[in-house]
Sequence to fold (502 residues):
Amino acid sequence: MPVSEIMSESSQSKDPTSFLSRRLSRSASPCEQCAVRAQSFCSVLEGQEFARLSAIVTGRAFARHQTIVQEGDRADWLFNIVAGAVKLYRTMPDGRVQIVGFLSEGDFVGIPVSDIYALSAEALTPVELCVFPRRSFDRLLAECPALEHRLFDLARTEVAAARDHMLLLGRKSARERLATFLLNELRQPEAIDIFLPMSRIEIADYLGLTMETVSRTLSALTRQGLIALTGSDRVRLMQIDRLRALAAGED
Amino acid sequence: MPVSEIMSESSQSKDPTSFLSRRLSRSASPCEQCAVRAQSFCSVLEGQEFARLSAIVTGRAFARHQTIVQEGDRADWLFNIVAGAVKLYRTMPDGRVQIVGFLSEGDFVGIPVSDIYALSAEALTPVELCVFPRRSFDRLLAECPALEHRLFDLARTEVAAARDHMLLLGRKSARERLATFLLNELRQPEAIDIFLPMSRIEIADYLGLTMETVSRTLSALTRQGLIALTGSDRVRLMQIDRLRALAAGED
DNA sequence: CGATCTGTTGAAGTGAGTCAATAGTGGTGG
DNA sequence: CCACCACTATTGACTCACTTCAACAGATCG
Fold:
């Protein structure tokens, strides 16, 4: 079954309970032994409020390339990523795509703006999600300042990240975009190895480039010894300082 | 006195009480008769809390081209725009600029992310601001869920706007960028006339283009009858539907 | 009424895009 | 286990939208 069919099927079903996503069996209090709780928004909740969140959550799994939500659909569900990686993107009628972010374990999808999703979300890898019904979540949010405080914090961080990305898209060269991207993908500050769960096209759609330019630029950076490609989805940063300078536009 | 000098002076003084900004004399309760209160975040406050906000606010005026805050400075002040227009921007070491937003009456500057401003702000026109000391404001915020709720709302709206702008910067042509920009500058949905308080360079720095491309593209849109330039800072949208199609990429 | 800034227009250059061929890569079934 | 297939990534040749460099025109203001 080609991906396009999966996607069109998914676009028809507005509900994440669709046959495409697998409901995960969980205990009555699934949140208590959650592996990503510590790094997720839900860690601000305790006691009663935590119990309320646990009560409305459902676990759900998506396969690689499955659409989780589609822009334009009714925003009835909110998500938290338990495992895997997700892309968030906007599309244009002629097929142009702008990916606005990649998310992974512990990230919250859908600080809601309106009743309609402004973005699509798709699984880059097999993904496990916590799903919250919008209504119940909003009710909890209204009664729980600590939760709102935490989401406000997340929203501010997202605004800052979005503005950094605007600078990248508006003013950086392809080399600078790739350097910035690779440095951002470093999770631990000490690491030098990166795993890229996304394809070249997805990197291109994130950086406002084409697949070919991404590939050529990575090859050039390799030739110049700044990085090493240790597999098509693995990169080692060989000269972090020069990459930092490049990313900042000092080169 | 050239602009560059004003800016470098301003960058030395981290405090908006600097000689460059004029302190506005105000009554003991300046907020009560505020013209922009209805459209500002402060409208959510009442009674006691409103009084507390009034107590910490100071009025301040900036001339055209004055720097209000500079990225990298300590984020000790928050602002609300009472009159005039402001640009928010990020810069690169070699002088490249990306404007991330234009703000006007009623807009709040500085949903704070860290202790350091991530952006610079400069007056496009003569500007009057409410200035709040960060500490006092944060204290009020911590004790007033309604305020936080409102700012959360603003932050969410900003995230959505930022993502729209990423699509523009990453994937739209110069024509599409200008069409999108002009439609966004329409304040009332029924209007067709736009006043642009910013220069061609500033439009370019917002849209990720050069001044020349902005000028040429506006000329082309005029030649094609989509807009009319009724002064270098005034535009009339002659064919809104075609502009909308263009902005959406359906053309 | 010149000086200065901002905006427009023209000509030439270029970084990234497009189109196309080739080379890896991973999954599947014989 | 390998051979094939389908897909993804790389590389090359060429094109083009936007930039750069430069001249000119209009506005604004002492």
Notes: The CA atoms of residues 40 and 157 of chain A lie 14 Å apart. The interface with chain B takes residues 90, 92-94, 96-98, 100, 111-113, 118-119, 145, 148-149, 151-152, 155-160, 162-167, 169-171, 205, 207-208, 248-250 of chain A (CB under 8 Å).
